[in-house]
Amino acid sequence: MVRYEGMVVISLHVNGENREVAVRPADLLLTVLREQLGLTAAKPGCLNGDCGACTVIVDGWPVKSCLMLAVEAEGHTILTVEGLGGTAAVHRAFVDANAFQCGYCTPGFLMVCHALMTRHPAMPGESVVEEWLASNLCRCTSYQEIRSAVERMYAP
Amino acid sequence: MIPFNFVYYRPDSLGAAAEVYEKLRREGVSAVYYAGGSEIITMCRAGAIEPRAVIDIKRIPECMILSPGDRRMTIGSACTLSQIGESRMFPLLALSCGRIADHTNQCRITLGGNLCGSIQYRETSLPLLLSDADISLYGPEGARDVPFHSVFDGYMRLKPGELVVAVHVPVWALTAQCAHMKKTANEKIDYPLVSVAAVWRDGCLRIAFSGVCAFPFRSQAIESVLNDRTMTRGERAQRAACLLPAPVTSDAEGSGEYRLFVFRNTIDEILEGWENGTL
Amino acid sequence: MNTAVGKSVRRKEAWDKVTGRAKYTDDFPIAGVLSARLLTSAHAHARIRGIDISGALALEGVKAVLTGADCPELFGPLTRDRPALARDVARYAGEPVALAVAQDDYTAERAVRLIRVEYEPLPISLTPSQSLARGAPLIHAQVNGYRKNAPDIHPEPGTNIAGRYRIRKGDSGNALRRCNTVVRQRFFLPPSDHMAMEVRTARAEISSGGDVIITTSSQSPYSVRNELSEAFLIPAGKIQVRVPFVGGGFGGKASVMPEILAFLASRRVGGKPVRLTMPREQDMAAAPGRIGLEADITLGASKDGLIHAAELTYWLDCGAYTDISPYMTKAIAVDCTGPYHVENLSCDALCVYTNHTYATSYRSFAHESYTYCIERTLDMLADRCALDPLELRIRNAIRPGSLTPTQVECTAALTGNLTECLNRVRQLSQWNGGIATPIKKDTVRAMGVSCFWKTENPPTDAISGALVTCNPDGSVNLHTGVVEMGDAGQTHLAQMFAEKLKIDTDKVHVVMPVDTRTAPEHWKTVASLTEYMAGHAVVRAADDMLCQLRAIGSQALGCPAEEIEVAHGRLYSIKNPERFIALKDIVRGYKSATGESIGEPVLGRGGYMLKGLVMLDPETGEGRTGPQWTLGAQVVEVEADRKTCTYRILSASTVIDIGALLNPESMRSMLAGGMAMGISMASREAFSYDAGGIPRLPNLRTYKIMHIGQEPDYRVDFVETPDCASPYGVRSYAEHGIIGMPAALGNALSSAFGRQLNTLPLTPETIWRTRAEDVHDTL
């Protein structure tokens, strides 16, 4: 049985690499990604699971990293926007669709879209797209641009 | 950011989990069983709870089962709402899981976490109350299998150190006609003003509610009224509103009076769908 | 043929933003940076009897705990009425009371939870009406006792009135008596929040030499510098303010607040770097939000629907401190009628203290609020005159020769063409005459229209600037003080510069982060004035550079400077275009074939200061406050269920007279974004307070903004009546999508439900309650 108390060193599999980090059991995955690994694409927007700006992909599923302990991520595969390497379809789709303004929520939306395409390689129906994307908030755009980005992601 | 420390345990078996809990209890250490963590992390950050130990049950095999059986389907307490939804094995539960929080959070929130949560809605309880489900519990005194309604009266009534292992749903409920509706203040992703789950068995409506009162409930008194076809739909909805088991909730999501208005409309909508066969 | 202007050039920082490379204030490493966390008031109004910080100070890792006693200075851009930390009295729930500084976030938060405050609750007032009632608690004992930074702010002693503006034009009293149709309505709009996705955050440190270095998520880095300088008597040049990318502002980050706290914290710990990131709950309750508004609107018209008189009173709920609210009060007065020709007008706009969280600028500077009141009343007028609401607006549309409320004469160039906007929005929205149409049992479709206009209210001497340096490849670097927070302002400026030099926009590099030590001062990135003010500066910098290039070219090519043309990366004589010098070979001075050096390196500079603006006449309100107007018309269509009081928003349309389309796609998307914000605010957003004035659960769980899937079909179209005084003819546009949305939605829903909806937000419960109250009234 795993038992962690005080500062512990754990290994996280992030963006294809194993990274050792020293964490408190109460540390959030988001904080550890940002503050220890310098992966600041995931953003704190509410720290309450409501806005989705901190979304990363864990074992293929979108996860709000403000609602996951770093110690829980041990043994799982974590992917952040930095790990997409600038080559995923979702980047260009968002650029071409002008699907962001301030850009703060963008990494979270990108990760949800990327996870969506991983689990649904063919474009699913509108209700599924909406269901997935309604996990995230954008205050700048009208959402029409983000919908258009999803279409472009599937038909580049 | 959680502004205090706790000890993190990740047991591999039910026995180990209960043993740790019992040991911590004897030492006077406050501990919580932890599955998806959404509510526990939120409450820790807000200062509402300060557990000194967290026991993560997600690697206990019995809590992860999701399987159809000959007689009953078993759903482990650490199964996420999205796993339950995607399995499509229990349509009514899938419907209610699909309207809790948002999709990404459904990938983390678990059945057990939702049932045992302190946020008042606990909407996964509604399909279980309606389907004669059983529940497996495990604690320092060992395992027990009991009818779900015997340990859920709006709140999970567990013994100290007991955790929810799995629920079991009889096969009739997996194919029964059912309906689910959730009404919110205006935004789809929100807590319910009224959440309703309905199942028809032998032509009779069974119905359970969340959001209306401070706890989810199934009411046989309301069911008798709604099954009484001598009354009009409006009369039945009106009567049902007078049979709530507790005062109607009034909060930032909606006033009590308005909730009753939504409650009556939702019942009317369900009855209308039933009459017209459009559910 | 344009080179750059008029093209849908992609925003400069696009790829940084989709790869997670774009750095925001809190994305920089925190090793060696201390953390500050706030304790905020648990009461809406209370005397602070005592604060016990001993428990917090005893905690290991805590460096300091500050309270109001540590900072006597008062702050505010107009009236200095706000302490950094409450002193003696807390005036709103959420007001900063103490600040803990510790080695990390975790320790600072633990320290905050160990601070004990003894409060003595005081009577509260939560609306302007309550604050103006006899016997209301005075939220500030001496409203006139504060230092003021502007001469046109007049608090009224012995009251909760923090400022008042008057408009008097013609004789509204007499004119109203002659009108055969008079409508009068009261409105009540509650405060709401900006809800930028990035919370407010700032870092501060003080160098050994006494330089104050602030990194902040701010729309107004120069105001941060100036306010700190004035309050703490630090020479402005000793303060350096840096702003990387900003994760949305919407006016909320124009106010100087976290920077002051971070500075105080750093000063207290010997200048060490300190970061203060406000949790979402504090970003909502402690930092300023959107105003509330009450209004009493009277419009008088003849039978044909022509408006002859208006009497308007607006009471702004500015919350506990004024911040920029007196000028929002002025802004309402200046545009108080909406874009209509009204000859007889009397308007009083009052700024009123309450025990709400204080307000600051919010996208469109209060125009979205007063527009709701005017445009809803216009629909009632249309109803009384049995006119199509859109036709009523065309009849009354402001036109060349009309006088604005502050008696500025309208011209097509100055104000634009409202009639054309209305005609075009009629087509774009497929306007149905404004009559609710039954679709099926209990369900109707209905449309609502609203016009909008807005001029700006900057200081009369607001400034901007641009500096341009050159690279060996012939590209240039454009430095301005414009903050990039989503509006693509810097991309538009690059387009303007590229157009002047006839080079590709890709050749104009922009310096995205702002540093007050290196970027020329730009007043604030607010009021949609980037393209106008910084645009002027950029055009001047381009002219300056062209002038230098011609001088060098003249020498190098041996022809008069007037014959030199610069285009497509080349410099040549118009008489002999075959002989040219590539820009890359001349921007750093020219070296001839013989090795002779000619000219100097080229450096473009442009400064700009607003001209011709004045303070309003205190009695009549006469005067001009902004350089231009932008106007337009909007329509919202809804499908409503009359039984359940629920509705879906089907479409939202905007036609705006933008002057000139600098960048069709970015301008369309900014307008659509504004419309979305307006629809979200109007349909579901408001702070919910309990009876004691405590905000209920201020977080994104219960405060809903619109999620994807609920949004209507957004349609945007443009009219282009150039403003000849503006660079390339463009008008301010970045805020404007929001302005008429609440009113258009309110008009659509009022029509759909057959009830006068005079409040926000327009939730099904609001509609249900209005209906219930109406039924009660008739009983």
The percent range for strand residues of chain C is 25-35%
Outline of chain C, from the CA principal axes?
globular
Give the beta-strand count of chain C.
32
Largest interface: A-C, 53 and 57 residues
Strand content of chain B: 15-25%
The SS-based structural class of chain C is: alpha+beta
Fraction of residues of chain C in helices? 25-40%
Kindly identify the CATH topology of the largest domain in chain B.
Uridine Diphospho-n-acetylenolpyruvylglucosamine Reductase, domain 3
**Which regions of chain C have little confidence, pLDDT < 50, spanning 5+ residues?**
none
> Main beta sheet of chain C, described?
8 strands, mixed
CATH superfamily of the largest domain in chain C: Aldehyde oxidase/xanthine dehydrogenase, molybdopterin binding domain
Largest sheet, strands/sense/barrel of chain B: 5 strands, antiparallel
Lateral strand order in the biggest sheet of chain C = 3-7-1-14-11-12-13-23
Total number of helical segments of chain C?
18
* Domains of chain C, number: 3
Q: What's the short story on this structure?
A:
The complex is a heterotrimer of chains A (156), B (279) and C (779). With 156 residues, chain A is α+β, with helices and mostly antiparallel strands.
Question: Descriptors for this entry?
Answer:
heterotrimer, A: 156 residues, DNA polymerase, domain 1, 5-stranded mixed sheet, 6 helices, elongated, B: 279 residues, Uridine Diphospho-n-acetylenolpyruvylglucosamine Reductase, domain 3, Enolase-like, domain 1, 5-stranded antiparallel sheet, 4-stranded antiparallel sheet
Task: Describe the protein's architecture and organization.
The complex is a heterotrimer of chains A (156), B (279) and C (779). Helices cover 34% and strands 18% of the residues of chain A. Chain A is built from six helices and six strands. Chain B has a five-stranded antiparallel beta sheet with strand order 4-5-8-6-7. In chain B, α3 runs antiparallel to α4, α10 (220-226) packs antiparallel against α11 (233-241) and α11 packs antiparallel against α12 (256-276). By secondary structure, chain B is α+β, with helices and mostly antiparallel strands. Chain B contains twelve helices and twelve strands. Chain B has three domains: 7-56, Uridine Diphospho-n-acetylenolpyruvylglucosamine Reductase, domain 2 (2-Layer Sandwich), CATH 3.30.43.10; 61-173, Uridine Diphospho-n-acetylenolpyruvylglucosamine Reductase, domain 3 (2-Layer Sandwich), CATH 3.30.465; 177-276, CO dehydrogenase flavoprotein, C-terminal domain (Enolase-like, domain 1, 2-Layer Sandwich). With 779 residues, chain C is an alpha+beta fold. In chain C, the strands form eight sheets. Chain C has an eight-stranded mixed beta sheet with strand order 3-7-1-14-11-12-13-23, with helices on both faces. A five-stranded mixed beta sheet of chain C has the order 9-17-16-15-10, with helices on both faces. In chain C, α14 (489-501) runs parallel beside α15 and α16 crosses α17 (741-753). β1 (2-4) of chain A pairs antiparallel with β1 (7-10) of chain B, so a sheet runs across the interface.
